[in-house]
Design a protein that fits this description.
Elements: E1 4-6, E2 9-10, H1 14-32, H2 42-71, H3 78-100
């Protein structure tokens, strides 16, 4: 599987790969996490499947945006570098915020 065949061409199937990998990871985690009796109840199962499906769809949309951005005919420069720095800082802020959240 190749996600790109060269610098000017990104694979249009990349969003599907991203959703599939996320789905596989979610199912793998589900298979090894500790069992709780409430997980057997139908509303909990439906809610969890819906969250997994929405997460995979969101991952596919995000991957599609990355593929579109990768194929955009942009010239380099200070503006593009600034966008990259802001995006990296935002990603770091999201990771730091998630890491500080307490699980109740």
């Amino acid at each position: 599987m190749r996600l790109a065949t060269g610098p000017a061409h990104a694979d249009p199937w990349t969003p599907l790969y991203a959703a599939g990998f996320l789905f596989a990871a979610e199912l793998a985690w589900w298979s090894i996490e500790p069992r709780v009796p409430a997980f057997s109840e139908l509303p909990v199962l439906v809610n969890r499947l819906a969250v997994i499906a929405l997460s995979c769809a969101g991952g596919a949309v995000l991957a599609g945006l990355v593929v579109l951005a990768a194929g955009a005919p942009l010239q380099g420069g200070v503006g593009l570098e600034l966008v990259g720095v802001v995006a990296a800082a935002a990603a770091l802020a999201v990771v730091a915020t998630v890491a500080r959240l307490r699980v109740r």
